[in-house]
Amino acid sequence: MNICEALRAESGVVAVVGAGGKKTTLYTLATRASKSDRQAVVTATVRIPIFDRHVEEVVVTDDPVAALEQAAAWPVGVVPEREGEDRYVGYDLETIDDLAAADVADVVLVKADGARTREFKAPGDHEPQLPPRTDTVVPIASVQVVGKPLAAEHVHRPERVAAITGRDRGETIRTEDVAAVLASERGGLKGVPDGAAVVPLLNKVDNATHRQDAAEIATMILERTPSVNRVVLARMIDDDPVIQVLER
Questions:
Q1: Sign of CA dihedral 215, 129, 16, 228
Q2: For residues 161 and 152, is the Cβ–Cβ distance under 8 A?
Q3: What is the Cα–Cα distance from 163 to 213, expressed in whole angstroms?
Q4: Whole-structure pTM value
Q5: How far is it, in rounded angstroms, from Cα 7 to Cα 130?
Q6: CA 213, CA 179: separation in Å to the nearest integer?
Q7: Could you read off the pLDDT of 80-108 as tens digits, one per residue?
Q8: At 195, phi and psi to the nearest 5?
Q9: Per the omega criterion (within 30 degrees of 0), is the bond before 128 cis?
Q10: Integer angstrom CA distances of residue 20 from 84, 189, 248
Q11: What number of CA atoms fall less than 13 Å from residue 90's CA on the CB side?
Q12: What per-residue confidence (pLDDT) applies to 209?
């Protein structure tokens, strides 16, 4: 099973949230889609670092539909505005919905929250920014956070992770803590639109220990979350990222 199929990211609006490889996942999915002759778009509903080298073209525009109707090479990045030297601003949710409805691309890949390069997170009050027309939500966590302290060095908004898991700040993060956050309505399931599929991704599975930890997390998610039917274990920087797919 290839990574696009595994994450149910072959078509529609795919929103990526969480921490531990969101941007790499977006760019990998876009590249793989284009290699399969599918027209892929990379965009965001929040700020996103400059990503020009990961796509064939970036168009800064208030009218992404018109821009994509003229696209000659894929994948294409569309954003409404550049902010400073290092990042773009994201679109409002209505614009992404309009883009989806226009049917000018096969798959629209959306960065829908931020994590400040941490390995794990729980969303803030105004996150995630998920378009109502989202077809698939991919909540991400790096399995390498297991064994690390619950602290800002490794976790974005550690106080919110603590509130979900019952762990104290500074305590060691366990597999059950990662599963609890990804399976929580205050965590990986927050704001998921009605009818959208949820496919959690456990990333950075670099060795046998990581794989064992990730499999434990995936099993716990599947046991406690009826709305999740599949969890993907991966190493997204690899040419063949999928390590294992666990299903109900």
A1: positive
A2: no
A3: 22
A4: 0.98
A5: 17
A6: 10
A7: 999 999 999 999 999 999 999 999 999 99
A8: 90, -10
A9: yes
A10: 24, 17, 24
A11: 23
A12: 98
Please provide residue 223's backbone torsions phi and psi, each rounded to the nearest 5 degrees.
Answer: -70, -35
**Which residues, at least 6 apart from 65, have a Cβ–Cβ distance to it below 8 Å?**
98, 99, 102, 104
Say whether 142 sits in a helix, a strand or coil: strand
Q: How far apart are CA 164 and CA 178, in angstroms?
A: 10
* Mean predicted lDDT score pLDDT of the chain: 97
Lookup result for tokens 């226009």: 102
Report the alpha-carbon angle 184-188-189, nearest 5: 65
List the one residue out of 4, 16, 225 whose CA is nearest residue 140: 16
Pairing of strands 155-156, 12-18: unpaired
- 181-216 confidence digits (pLDDT tens): 999 999 999 999 999 999 999 999 999 999 999 999
- Please return the burial class of 185, using the count of CB atoms within 10 Å of its CB with bins 0-12, 13-18 and 19+: exposed
- Phi/psi at 228 (5° precision): -110, 120
Q: Which residues of the chain have pLDDT under 50?
A: none
Angle between helices 175-182 and 208-224 (to 10 degrees): 40
Model pLDDT, residue 149: 98
**b/e per residue, 190-199, with b = 16+ CB within 10 A?**
bbbeeebbbb
Coil, helix or strand at residue 131:
coil
Alpha-carbon distance of 109 to 238, in angstroms, equals: 19
User: What is the residue type of 43?
Assistant: T
CA distance linking residue 181 with residue 109, whole number of Å: 23
Amino acid at 181: V
